Amino acid sequence: MTFPLDHLIFTPHDVDLARSPLAGRIDAETIVLGAFNPGMTRLANGNLLLMVRVAEALKEPIVEGHVRAVRWDAGSCVLDPWPLALVDTADPRKFMMRGGGWRVMALTSLSWLLPVELDPEGRRVEAVHYDRAIVPAASWQCYGVEDARISRVGDRFLMTTCSVSPERHSTTLYTSDDAVDWTLEGIVLDHQNKDMLIFEGLIDGKYWAQTRPLGDLYFAYPPDSEWRAGPSINLASSPDALHWKPSEHPGIRPHSATTATARMGGGSPPIATDKGWLTLWHGVEPHGVVGIYRTYWTILARDAPWRTVAFGETPLIEPAPALTEPLRDLMYLDSVVFTTGIADGGDYWIVASGEADLACRITHVPKRLIG
């Protein structure tokens, strides 16, 4: 499918590491492994704001028979060395510990959030605000802050992120009155509950959110069920956006008739339309190491967000190898588009995505294609 505008707006080449919040805090040369998965919202001046995840990695993670993990500690960066005999280093983003009875990993990069201001249509970068970068602020963020999603509810901006540490892999909340100055409110969802998307509006006076708890075990549906067991998009509600109660209604689940959405998770925060809540989400088809990530759409009932009003059976946005071809020398995986933001552009939706865990992609999706 072709779109009126579909381009990479921000890539690793656009990050100035001399202005990184890690500059001078880490005793090793670093590179940008990826500048991707941007949360997006519209500022008071009409411009778009991306909160770009910058994965800053060691240029040489392996030194003298050890691979080093990057960890934030009290405003500084620590390099933790692990003997190569104890780990699997096949993936440049991380390394896995051998043995132990369950999966344990460490990261060769540390992620922080970089505010990037775009023009109102997402065609060009207007400013990059290094002075307002968001870095870890607590022990439960020591491996980084990842994958922002921004929702505006009334006059308040709510930004959820994944905070990564040995303590827990949690969802954290930042709030702001202007999407410029952010306050860290703390942990709102506990271990391995990812892709939290807060609806851009209240339902019966409550905040609602999509969540995606992960696990290593799922119970089977009956053999003739229309659903497939596995990760699904769940729902939760809250009186204050801080304390969340899971909904007893199921959310969006994988269909048994296809493997294209065998694994799924939230993409852009649900936005109100005349037909209901429009939500974009990713479906993952098992393939290779990480699978093929595509973006799908669903419209949910305004007063009952667990009820589907309409949905698209075919992908709305697919990975675009032609866009990343100029960055081929930087790529470490492909077949991934990971949608993370949406804004109204009039006759089209402005959609922000991460492409190949590498760069930020802006796509103008005509509204006639949805609903």
Keywords:
371 residues, 26 strands, glycosyltransferase activity, mainly beta, Tachylectin-2, Chain A, 4-stranded antiparallel β-sheet, globular, 49% strand, hydrolase activity, acting on glycosyl bonds
Description:
- With 371 residues, this protein is an all-beta fold.
- It has one domain: 5 Propeller (Tachylectin-2, Chain A), CATH 2.115.10.20.
- It is built from one helix and 26 strands.
- The strands form seven sheets. A four-stranded antiparallel sheet has the order 1-26-25-24, with no helix packed on it.
- Strand 14 (169-176) and strand 15 form a beta hairpin.
- The radius of gyration is 20 Å and the shape is globular.
Approximate shape: globular
CATH hierarchy class name: Mainly Beta
Order of helix and strand elements from N to C terminus: EEEEEEEEEEEEEEEEEEEEEEEHEEE
Terminal-residue CA separation: 17 Å
Q: What CATH architecture do you see? A: 5 Propeller
The side-by-side strand order for the widest beta sheet comes to 1-26-25-24
Q: Say what the CATH topology is.
A: Tachylectin-2, Chain A
Number of strands: 26
Please state roughly what percent of the residues sit in beta strands, choosing from under 5%, 5-15%, 15-25%, 25-35%, 35-45% or over 45%: over 45%
Question: Could you give me the name of the CATH homologous superfamily?
Answer: Glycosyl hydrolase domain, family 43
- Could you report the average pLDDT, rounded to the nearest whole number? 95
Structural class: mainly beta
Q: Low-confidence parts lasting 5 or more residues at pLDDT below 50?
A: none
**Fraction in helix:** under 10%
Overall number of domains: 1
For the sheet with most strands, the description reads: 4 strands, antiparallel
DSSP summary: helix tally? 1
